[in-house]
Design goal:
CATH superfamily of the largest domain: Probable tRNA modification gtpase trme, domain 1
Shape: globular
Radius of gyration: 20 Å
CATH architecture of the largest domain: 2-Layer Sandwich
Number of strands: 17
Amino acid sequence: MNIQDIVNKHQVPDIWWSKSGLPGIIKTTGHDITDLIHRLSTNNCMNVTQQVGKQTVLTNEKGRIIDVITILQRKDDYLILTSSNNEIKVIQWLKKFIIMEEIQFSIVTDEYEMITVHGAQSLDCISQLLNTHDLDIPIHSIMTSLDLPTRFAIRIMPINEMQFLVIDSINSGLINVFESSSIPFFDEVQFELERILSGMGIYGHELSDSYNPLEAGLLHLIDFKKGCYIGQEVIARLDSFNKVQKRLMGFISKYPISQNTIILIDSIEIGIVTSALQSIEGTIGLAYIRSEHAFPNSTVDAKSEVASQLCTLLNLPMRS
């Protein structure tokens, strides 16, 4: 099983859409929310505007991941995008640190229809959908519709090329628009393959309180100049002294391998599988590997209760 063969077999079109990988949505009111999230997370969130939001990582006192969230400002409120089904945990964590701030939270995920649109031609598609003509859309920007006030799109971190999250009110017909179009649809399995090839972690797999942002490859979401936040000292120390113990890597194998399978070298445990997608060709997945063993093209053992199977470690992203 060769990674290039997989990539060649599963070529992606210039535009495609999916109903997988959708976030939870929390609506908040109160202007103190940006200050609160700034104090609790890894990135500088004080420069959030109505045009451009910010993605950041909530971490606990040990520097481990609570969730990766995006904060967006609208005219009358703010939206927080969480991992799927993680809205309650995020609200509970934020409320622990509210002292005098006047902030209200409400989970509004079920009030919306959502899809994601991907690929080099996605901006043209979104511009037509919203009847806008924006050519320069920064990451985490909101694009609003000139015709439909409930419909908007957010440019989000891409699996490949460019990616937008499109949102409209429930029963708006948004999904019907794409189902009746000629744009290719990626189901859950196809989406998962692209996610794994890109090395993008998701909550409950690569993103959890078992791992820190440096291990998860989220260095781009850490502002080392912003000052204190929950978990800051731990993360700064790990970075300064090069003490990151694990590294997220891809792997392939011609054998069936499942999530939570232990990875070994010479009978020594060096990692664990966090995502695995099986097919008749074998398995492709993601795994956390101890840094001293995290070398691409290394052959390692994936040991389950049934058998020990060979697999090959790969750098991320696996689709170049």
